[in-house]
Amino acid sequence: MWNLQGTPEVNYTFYSRSGSQKANVCAEYLLEKGTNIGCTLPYNNQQRFDSFYTKLWDGNRTVTPLDRVPEINHDLRRKVKLNPPTNLTVMNGSDMNLWFYWNHTIKSCLENEVRIRKNNNNWEIQPVYRGPMSYCQNLPSSTARYELQVRVRFENYCGQSDFWSDWSEPVVWGFNNTTVSNIKNETMPVWTAVLYVVSAITLILLVVILLHNERIKIILIPPLPKPALNSPDVEDWFHFSKGLIKERFNTNFNERACTVREYQPVSRSDSNGSDSSRLTTSTDQTDCSIPIAMNEPEDTSAPFYTTVIASEEEQ
To answer: Cytokine receptor-like factor 2-like D1 domain location, by residue (predicted)?
Structure first.
């Protein structure tokens, strides 16, 4: 193309040749407003290592013959711009890493440049490398979104080009681990925002009702007794219903008590008999005929009731 300084005023004739070949006229021109601005040439992979010569000639306005027009030598190896990679894919590897793959029509002599970003942050360009058409993201986060693009050019050993290809279409990993080409920014649904607002209003109303309704407040949050502000009598802490009388729970009452006494042996001598007899005097063990109050002291001076039991010899 020869329109870098603007559209030329005349139509030039373009001649080109490769190596020692004969110069040929351009077969297909690029036009701009009816004026020739460039030439489309067929590509031959082997010709990019040869010297390429071009010249422009306007036979109508110049008196210089064609064979005296100077030629310009071009190094085609540094002028090649490849097409971007295609068929980008991504998958989780068995090594728990994230692997990106792509294809290109040229299988060798390429170097790759990858750029990747996480969660719509700035792009991070990785170092240029030669080798397989793949890239590994170590230990990706399951909650993050990764987006990757790649471009290629000829490497130095095959005649390095000055031009990178365009960036490929992005491949995205994330959002339930699906691969998509284009992801649009998602906004919060309207019903979700409405639900948040209604929930907040409901919570505020419940708090207001709880603060103004003492009965509901006591039911939900029963008050705890404070011993320091109440009577030392524990019974006064309880609230008796109308059908109950506190005096019925009075602990000052009398109960019929039983007196317990011991058996005591007594020996007596009978003056009227010739032989002395052994008599045994026993006392009653219990006597429940007399009620005694709990707060009255026991009468230890009560008499023993004795019973004389004759021996078998007297009978």
So the answer is: 1-41
